[in-house]
Specification:
This protein is of the alpha+beta class and about 700 residues long. The chain folds into 6 domains: about 60 residues; about 250 residues, D-amino Acid Aminotransferase, Chain A, domain 1, CATH 3.30.470; about 80 residues, OB fold (Dihydrolipoamide Acetyltransferase, E2P), CATH 2.40.50; about 70 residues, DNA polymerase, domain 1 (Orthogonal Bundle), CATH 1.10.150; about 70 residues, Orthogonal Bundle (DNA polymerase, domain 1), CATH 1.10.150.20; about 80 residues, 3-Layer(aba) Sandwich (Rossmann fold), CATH 3.40.50.10190. Strand 22, helix 21 and strand 23 form a beta-alpha-beta unit. Helix 1 runs antiparallel to helix 2, helix 11 packs across helix 12 and helix 15 packs across helix 16. About 0% of the residues have low confidence. It binds nicotinamide-adenine-dinucleotide and zinc ion. The site of nicotinamide-adenine-dinucleotide has 23 residues, from helix 1, helix 2, strand 3 and strand 4.
């Protein structure tokens, strides 16, 4: 997982890159929001490193290379022992090379390794005087850090008082757990602040903030224990001799939180294989951890090995970070979709400008709920931090506010259920369709009653909801069993409307098979596909008898769609039977089944109509005898007359029916020299088929 470098071409570009990197690092360590994502920063630093390797005499003093915190952080409290960064490896091979170089340096194989998660927060030194926590210092530039003692009392796992009155320095990571991060952003935005983009960013910003009106908790994990100047000499000597794993046990006994309290406790291993096995285990658990990790830290466990290895100016030689792929990237939020779940939960989903995270391209990410969108102050067009760990659904974090251009648009929340049109219950953070589990039923009944399906006048969504809520209808077929008395028992249902609805239902039973099929809502069978299937098979029995191969004879049904249509039709067999029993028409007028081979061996060919062999496109407003026809009805008419309907003009088009205000389709037909007809001319052509 080595990201490509930024190519630096000349000294000016190099100077600019150094300036950019120092600026980014300064913001990064101070908890600012204006940082690039880590991959982008690392690419920049690799570019700087590469250029410096070729131009060693032109290295700028500000350069981030070879420095702790990229040279950007500072402070005025000197550290007892330098607080360093870590070098990285990215693969088992690189790790093996590191262990080999360590063995050469110390003159023998490393006897024992400690393996711990690399917590993704920021390093801190906590000084205890006779057991009391007196001072908190950031890592700073490694030599001196900033005093952040004001944060004492807000960091879980870092007790005010140790179990023993010892004078020691505890080092470790301050971070925000996922829950603490959510809480911090809620509190921050409630106080009018911008939400933090990442938990790391939130921890850095919170730790350094002095005069906040509110406090938000963070968590500490210790990974170092060392003596201070006035530590009692026996203890000081002991701390200098203990193995890292023993120091961690001691820290735990003193009351300091360590990784021992997590699902990925630090362990020791004596072989490279043992270390790598643990690396894999921790990587596999990463997505489930309640805090972020960005790798695994491997240390020579024994004090003697550490001393023999020594340290460089930026990192110790006895420890290494085995980096895991970045799980956070910045990309743009393009759109928000609202999906209704099985139980009626209406969940927003963000559509992203595609971004690659850990080897997969991410185009969607969850946004939880409307309150969350408001809390994060997200807008369409925003640059957002996207987080994806393992197989978990990617999440959208906060917007990167300083990248706003002013063209961002507010995200619109739905006013009615986007699936069935009912009201929305907004009393909880997770919005829900008022129909709950019935939402799907209401939506499918409303769809079936629609103009292009069974065209049942008087059966709009409101009426469907009424029927469903009264328990009168539990599926499509129940509609046809409704009685006058039942309808009259409903509110706002007078005699006339009841009779009208019954008449409309009776009429719906006579609709052609294509519309009945469409009304069933089988995936992949919209209006025109339903017509093609119905014309091809002529009867519902034939359709149901068809296997996937037979279905593929219908134009537009491929190897992928066919089996799913077959399976879905099989699933709704009882419903289809119930509809047939209720008297719903199951044949397509004028169509002949494909294998209608007569006894004498001749195949019955469907009667040719005036449009046989033609592909017809309708555009503009219809007038005259065609005025009342919807686009769907026009297409039905074309197909009844033997033609093929299409919605776009191409070289294959044979006729374009162009009504008033016909636009680009007409122009294209003229360009291609395709025959044009007015609505009246067309009506005359298909007069026999107009019903
Ligand atoms: N996005 C940006 O603009 C930006 C700017 C600067 C740095 N960065 C990122 O920061 C990283 C470099 O930062 P760094 O110098 O803090 O180094 P680092 O985070 O890669 O590694 C060193 C740190 O690991 C931490 N750590 C966690 N668990 C540990 C454990 N068990 N034992 C010991 N240490 C442990 C300590 O805080 C230590 O200081 C780079 O990966 C870079 O991408 C990003
Ligand atoms: Zn609904």
């Amino acid at each position: 997982m080595t990201t490509p470098v930024v190519q630096i071409v000349d000294a000016a570009a190099y100077a600019q890159a150094v300036e950019d990197a120092v600026k980014a690092a300064a913001a990064y360590y101070a908890g600012g929001t204006s940082t690039p994502d880590d991959d982008a920063y690392d690419r920049l630093v690799r570019g700087i490193t590469a250029w410096e390797a070729d131009h060693p005499d032109q290295v700028l003093p500000d350069s981030p290379t070879g420095k702790v915190a990229g040279g950007a952080a500072e402070g005025d409290v000197p550290h007892t022992v330098a607080m360093l960064s870590l070098d990285n490896v990215f693969s088992p091979e690189q790790f093996a090379a590191w262990t080999a170089s360590l063995a050469r340096r110390i003159g023998h194989e490393t006897e024992r390794f400690s393996v711990e998660p690399k917590l993704d927060g920021l390093a801190i030194a906590a000084r205890y005087t006779q057991g009391r926590l007196t001072r908190l210092i950031t890592r700073g530039d490694g030599i001196a850090g900033e005093d952040v003692s004001h944060a004492i009392g807000t960091i879980e796992g870092l007790p005010d008082e140790l179990a023993e009155p010892v004078t020691v320095e505890v080092r470790g990571e301050v971070l925000m757990t996922t829950a603490q991060f959510e809480h911090a952003n809620a509190v921050r935005t409630a106080h009018g602040g911008q939400p933090f983009a990442t938990p790391r960013n939130a921890a850095a910003g919170t730790l350094r903030a002095k005069d906040r009106l509110y406090t938000v908790p963070m968590t500490f994990f210790g990974y170092g224990l060392l003596p201070l100047a006035d530590t009692e000499p026996v203890l000081a000597a002991r701390l200098g001799e203990l193995a890292h794993s023993d120091l961690m046990a001691l820290a735990g006994e003193l009351g300091v939180n360590t990784t021992a309290s997590t699902a990925v406790p630090g362990i020791t291993a004596t072989t490279t294989e043992g270390v790598l096995a643990r690396v894999r285990e921790i990587a596999a658990l990463r997505a489930e951890l309640p805090f972020g990790i960005d790798g695994i830290v491997i240390k020579a466990d024994l004090a003697a090995d550490q001393q023999a290895a020594g340290s460089g100016s930026r990192a110790p030689r006895w420890a290494i970070a085995y980096k895991l792929p970045a799980v956070e990237k910045i990309t743009r939020l393009l759109e928000v979709e609202w999906n209704v779940g099985r139980t009626g939960i209406i969940a927003p989903r963000g559509v992203l400008e595609p971004v690659e995270i850990d080897g997969s391209t991410i185009t969607y990410a969850t946004l939880h709920n409307p309150a969350d969108i408001t809390r994060r102050d997200l807008r369409l067009g925003d640059h957002v931090m996207v987080h994806r760990a393992g197989d978990v659904i990617p999440r959208i974090g906060a917007p990167v506010a300083h990248l706003r251009t002013g063209a961002e648009q507010p995200i619109e929340f739905p006013q009615v259920c986007p699936r069935c049109g009912s009201g929305i219950d907004t009393s909880e953070e997770r919005w829900r369709c008022e129909q709950g589990r019935n939402c799907h039923l209401v939506a499918s009944l409303s769809y079936a009653a629609g103009r292009d399906q069974l065209d049942i006048e008087g059966l709009g969504t409101t009426r469907v909801i009424q029927l469903v809520e009264a328990g009168l209808v539990t599926d499509l077929a129940d509609l046809f069993a409704l009685t006058r008395d039942q309808l009259l028992s409903l509110e706002r249902m007078a005699e006339t409307s009841s009779d009208n609805l019954l008449a409309a239902l009776a009429q719906a039973k006579t609709q052609p098979l294509s519309r009945v099929l469409c009304a069933l809502g089988v995936r992949g069978t919209g209006r025109s596909m339903s017509r093609r299937i119905a014309r091809h098979f002529a009867t519902m029995d034939n359709i149901r008898a068809a296997d996937a191969d037979a279905l593929q004879e219908v134009e537009g049904i491929g190897a992928e769609k066919a089996p799913s249509i077959v399976a879905e039709l099989a699933e709704i067999t009882p419903l289809i039977d119930k509809l047939a029993a209720a008297g719903v028409n199951m044949t397509e007028p004028g169509a002949t089944p494909p294998s209608a081979v007569a006894d004498n061996g001749t195949v019955t060919v469907p009667a040719a109509g005036p449009l046989t062999g033609m592909t017809v496109v309708v555009t503009g407003a219809m007038t005259g005898p065609l005025e009342q026809l919807s686009r769907n009805q026009m297409n039905e008419l074309i197909e009844r007359a033997g033609g093929r309907s299409s919605s776009s003009v191409s070289k294959k088009t044979t006729l374009v029916v162009a009504g008033d205000n016909a636009g680009s389709k007409r122009a294209k037909a003229e360009d291609l020299g395709i025959r044009l007809a007015t609505p009246d001319e067309f009506a005359a052509l298909v007069a026999d088929y107009l019903t």
